[in-house]
Design a protein that fits this description.
The complex is a heterodimer of chains A (281) and B (320).
Chain A lengths: L1 H15 L14 H19 L2 H17 L3 H17 L3 H12 L8 H17 L3 H18 L4 H14 L3 H18 L2 H17 L3 H18 L2 H17 L3 H18 L13
Chain B lengths: L12 H26 L6 E8 L10 E4 L2 E12 L2 E9 L11 E6 L7 E6 L14 E3 L4 H45 L1 H22 L4 H75 L31
Parallel strand pairs in B: 2-6, 5-7
Antiparallel strand pairs in B: 1-4, 2-3, 3-4, 5-6
The chains are: A mainly alpha (281), B alpha/beta (320).
């Protein structure tokens, strides 16, 4: 009887011994945490409305609050966003300084994903400023880290490396990297990087003297950029197409692309006459 | 120390307690069996899986539905190359109903605020999916994207309306000007009539003085003059009536024009406010998203990061 009673007790204990719910305390958001969320929301709002000055101010505030909270992910996210907006404002030094919050801080445990983002951003800032050597170093680091984690930025890194090769005059390598970036973008479905890769491929072929072959990827890039709706890229595509068509001996097509580019450029500048140089670079 | 128990009263007590415990044990086992049956522990289940770049909104235990009918649940999720590998346990009997090119979608049972489920969208392939196979995943659209779509589609319509209203306003002004000119011309008609009559009378006098031989002609002229004299007042009367009608129409058109202008003035802030309201609705929804219990229903699909675009490396990204 004692064994039977003991068995019953064990069974009953098993029935009642379900997994206890834990109170994570997620609802106890601190005042600083709320201010961080508010600053991030305001920054996103300013960015959407095109007010980059205020967006940069809010991202800087969010970065400061995230640092006080030692929130590694928020520090990295806001530093990267601040670098993007600073570059849009033409403040390359501020963009670099923002990324230092991630790239030079050895005490905070940033995730590999955030480190790749920061390194890629740094490579973009350096290349945008004409520092191809520094850009190559940062792109190489991002590539190494990306290979180890199979990250989503592989196509973007390849595109930056292709642009570095093109800037350095190694046109064949640039074409090869751009082709790899295009293949990678197609497999991941990233239309933005696919268009960038096709544009760089077109430029590399043009630089190699393959003017007619340069037209096809440039036309594809233009189609994608029109779908994505980015006038800066549409203008860049039309300028490259005009240049390649001219070099290939198709003067009528070159004139057509040039006129379309001028119309886009004029509209971008609010109806003022567009600088001719932007279409003949 | 020992307690002496009455021998008759507790005879067979051990057997009774044993029987009671045995019955209780059997009942507990039966209850557990029933729970296990209801939970589907005895149903054979087959795993399938999909990989998503973002597993926000997907939870372990979430039901998996086919044509709105529950056929399984989310069994586990783990980080994998390219995102999160979400494993589903599907009742083996239902596998035959899922074609190979089927897709999974994160959906809600009642539009935007119902319980979240994984909905299997059957494909058109002839062969059914096999155990352990991978299917593609289609992420759900967030409320912000739906509102953005609505705004993008509604704004051209509002702009068209604005343009149409301003054209109506301008047309009203043109009609008023035309009617004012017409009225001015009509005002001068009686003077013209008087001048004609005077001319006819002078002609009659002149004709009498010229010659008696022209009497016949004169009388004829007089006749004509009389006829004209008789006709002109009628015409004049009719003209006056017409003028009054046109005048009334002009006043009415002017009034309508003013009303249209007032309506336009009243509608313009409305149109502008609608845009502000749409923007504020976005803010309100944003706030609502952060409030329990809606917070789980409105999780953002992105992590608030700005795009990292290699195009910016061209140095032309500044003129956004």
């Amino acid at each position: 009887m004692r064994w039977l009673a003991a068995g019953l007790v064990v069974v009953l204990a098993g029935c009642g011994g379900g997994k206890a719910t834990t109170n994570s305390g997620g609802g106890n958001t601190s005042l600083a945490q709320s201010r961080l969320t508010q600053a991030e929301t305001r920054a996103a709002g300013f960015t959407k409305s095109g007010d980059y000055q205020n967006a940069a101010r809010q991202y800087a505030e969010a970065l400061r609050i995230a640092t006080t909270l030692e929130n590694a992910d928020a520090i990295a996210a806001n530093a990267i966003n601040l670098s993007v907006v600073s570059q849009w404002l033409g403040r390359d030094d501020d963009a670099r300084a923002a990324l230092d919050a991630v790239l030079t801080d050895t005490h905070t445990a940033f995730s590999e994903h955030r480190k790749i983002q920061a390194e890629l951003r740094r490579a973009i800032v350096e290349l945008g400023g004409g520092n191809t050597g520094a850009a190559a170093v940062w792109a190489g680091q991002a590539q190494q880290r990306c290979n180890a984690t199979s990250c989503e930025y592989a196509a973007g890194i390849l595109n930056v490396r292709a642009q570095i090769e093109l800037e350095s005059g190694r046109n064949a390598e640039a074409a090869q990297l751009a082709q790899s970036a295009a293949d990678r973008s197609r497999s991941t479905g990233s239309q933005v990087e696919l268009a960038n890769a096709l544009r760089t491929l077109g430029r590399a072929r043009h630089a190699q003297g393959q003017y007619a072959a340069a037209m096809e990827p440039l036309k594809q890039a233009l189609e994608i950029d029109r779908e994505m709706g980015d006038p800066r890229k549409i203008l860049a595509d039309l300028a490259d197409l005009s240049r390649s068509a001219d070099a290939a001996g198709d003067a009528a097509a070159a004139r057509d692309y040039k006129e379309r580019g001028l119309a886009v450029s004029r509209a971008m500048n609010g109806g003022r006459s567009a600088p001719e140089a932007s279409l003949t670079r | 120390m020992s307690i002496a128990l009455p021998t008759k009263r507790f005879a067979g007590i051990v057997a009774k307690v044993n029987a009671f415990l045995l019955i209780a044990f059997v009942l507990v086992i039966a209850f557990l069996g029933l729970v296990a049956y209801k939970q589907g522990w005895f149903v054979h289940q087959s795993p399938i899986h999909f990989v998503t770049a973002n597993a926000l909104g997907i939870n372990k235990g979430m039901p998996v539905k086919l044509h709105g009918f529950t056929i399984g649940s989310v069994s586990s999720m783990e980080l994998a190359p390219g995102g999160v590998d979400v494993r589903l346990q599907i009742g083996s009997e239902y596998l035959a109903r899922i074609p190979q090119d089927s897709r999974a979608k994160n959906a809600r049972e009642s539009g935007l605020v119902g319980a979240a489920v994984i909905d299997i969208l059957p494909g058109k392939a002839e062969n059914a999916i096999s155990e352990g196979a991978q299917i593609s995943f289609e992420p759900a659209r967030g409320i912000s994207e739906i509102i953005d779509d609505f705004r993008r589609q509604a704004m051209p319509a509002f702009n068209e309306l604005k343009t149409a209203m301003s054209q109506v306003g301008r047309s009203g002004e043109d009609i008023t000007q035309i009617l004012a000119s017409l009225r001015k011309e009509v005002d001068q008609l009686p003077a013209t009539h008087r001048a004609i009559r005077k001319l006819v009378e002078e002609a009659a006098v002149a004709t009498t003085n010229v010659s008696k031989q022209a009497a016949a002609t004169l009388s004829a002229v007089e006749k004509v003059s009389k006829t004209v004299d008789k006709t002109i007042p009628e015409v004049s009367e009719k003209l006056v009536n017409s003028l009054q009608s046109i005048d009334a129409a002009a006043v009415q058109a002017k009034k309508t024009g003013e009303e249209v202008r007032l309506t336009l003035r009243a509608a313009r802030p409305l149109v502008e406010h609608s845009e502000v309201a749409a923007r504020e609705a976005g803010d309100v929804l944003g706030a609502a998203k952060r409030v329990w219990p809606l917070s789980d229903s409105f999780k953002e699909t992105s992590d608030g990061m700005l795009p990292i675009d290699s195009f910016e490396a061209e140095g032309k990204g500044r003129s956004r």
